[in-house]
Every structure is written in structure tokens, then in C-alpha cells.
Write a structure and sequence with these properties.
Elements (H helix, E strand, L loop, with lengths): L1 E3 L2 E2 L11 E2 L2 E4 L2 H10 L6 E3 L15 E4 L4 E6 L4 E5 L5 H10 L18 H4 L2 E2 L2 E2 L8 E3 L6 E3 L1
Parallel strand pairs: 4-6, 5-6
Antiparallel strand pairs: 1-4, 2-3, 7-8, 9-10, 11-12
This protein binds flavin-adenine dinucleotide (FAD).
Length: 152
């Protein structure tokens, strides 16, 4: 976990808007997310992925949490089916490239969609007649209703 005092968000949004944050934090693991939420007394932060769908209009005082959880893990594989678990901080297009290289079908129409894996289920990314929901199984996330970590 890293905290910076008054940093520019220019490099954290694709518009390159040069606003500042006074409470910018990075989480590299689920554990760091929980630790951060405890630190801010479970107030809902602004969650930031790749910042490609965010337009900052002014300096941000609210806590920002950038998710950088990495990793791609194969959970199950048969002749016809593969189930993978991917960290929210992976770049979406890197995941598509990884699947295409290994000849795993399903995501190829979603190549070049900017952003991170963690944001993909938030808006159900889609392109060329394919949507994430077509291959999506579940998302491990923290509920802002009760702050429990569970699979949705
Ligand atoms: C040029 C361009 C082309 C695009 N083309 C497409 C397209 O073809 N299809 C399509 O579907 N979209 C498209 N988009 C939209 C964009 O790619 C998606 O919205 C993408 O999912 C945003 O990812 P991000 O990581 O940058 O999200 P951010 O901009 O960082 O965040 C977007 C939202 O998701 C939330 N969020 C981010 N990460 C998490 C997380 N880990 N947990 C909970 N909430 C989170 C944020 O709080 C915010 O509300 C395009 C955007 C651009 C700029």
C-alpha cells in the first residue's frame, strides 16, 4: 500500500486531465484493499482501474483506490472449456492477447477495449456482438452494503 500527498492524476486517466488527489492509494492485493478500507473507516472510495472511462473535472479530496491486483490463473481445463481467474489490475487487452496466444476462444472480439479487467464486469464490456456476460462466471468483490468479500 502506498500513499502520496497531493499527486497529479494526469497519468491515471486517459484524457490526461491534470487534477490533483490528496489521498491516492494503490492496492496490490485483496488484503491491501481491506486494510485500506479499515484505514478510511469503510467510507466508499473512488475506485480507479485504467482511468479510460473517467473524466476528472476538478481536484479530488475523496480517497482514491487504484486497483493493481495482478495474475492470471487457470482454475479448470477440459478439452472444450477453460476457466480462468484474473486479477482486477491486469490490462484487459493483455488478457485478450494471452488467451489468443494460447488459442482460448471467447474474448477475441473484445480486443483493444481500453481499461483493466476489474472494470470489465462493472459495465459488461462489449464489441462486435460479443459481451463479457457471454463468458463471465463470477466476480470476487467487496460489497459496499456490508463490506464482505464474496463472489458475485
Ligand atoms: C477509445 C475508447 C474505446 C472504447 N471502446 C469500448 C468498447 O468497444 N466496448 C466497451 O464496452 N467499452 C469501450 N470503452 C469504454 C472503456 O474501455 C470501458 O469502460 C473500460 O471497462 C474502462 O476500464 P478502466 O479500467 O479504464 O475503468 P476506469 O475508467 O478506471 O473506471 C470505470 C468505472 O469502473 C469502476 N471500476 C474500475 N475498476 C474497478 C474495480 N476493480 N472494482 C470496482 N469498480 C471498478 C470505476 O470506479 C468507474 O466507475 C472505450 C473507451 C475508450 C476511451
Amino acid at each position: 500500500m502506498r500513499k502520496k500527498i497531493k499527486i497529479s492524476l494526469k497519468d491515471f486517466n486517459s484524457f490526461g486531465v491534470d487534477v490533483t488527489s490528496t489521498d491516492f492509494n494503490i492496492a496490490n492485493s485483496e488484503h491491501e484493499i481491506v486494510k485500506f478500507l479499515k484505514k478510511i473507516n469503510f467510507k466508499t472510495p473512488i475506485v480507479l482501474g485504467g482511468g479510460t472511462n473517467m473524466l476528472f473535472k476538478k481536484n479530488i479530496d475523496k480517497s482514491i483506490l487504484k486497483i493493481k491486483i495482478k495474475g492470471i490463473e487457470i482454475l479448470n481445463e477440459t478439452n472444450e472449456f477453460i476457466e480462468i481467474s484474473v486479477g482486477a489490475g491486469e490490462v484487459w487487452n493483455n488478457l485478450v492477447d494471452w488467451c489468443v496466444e494460447k488459442n482460448y476462444g471467447g474474448f477475441e472480439n473484445l480486443s483493444f477495449i481500453p481499461g483493466n479487467v476489474g472494470s470489465a464486469p462493472i459495465q459488461n464490456i462489449g464489441a462486435y456482438g460479443v459481451e463479457l456476460k457471454d463468458t463471465f462466471i463470477s466476480c470476487r468483490a467487496i460489497s459496499t452494503d456490508n463490506w464482505f468479500l464474496k463472489d458475485f
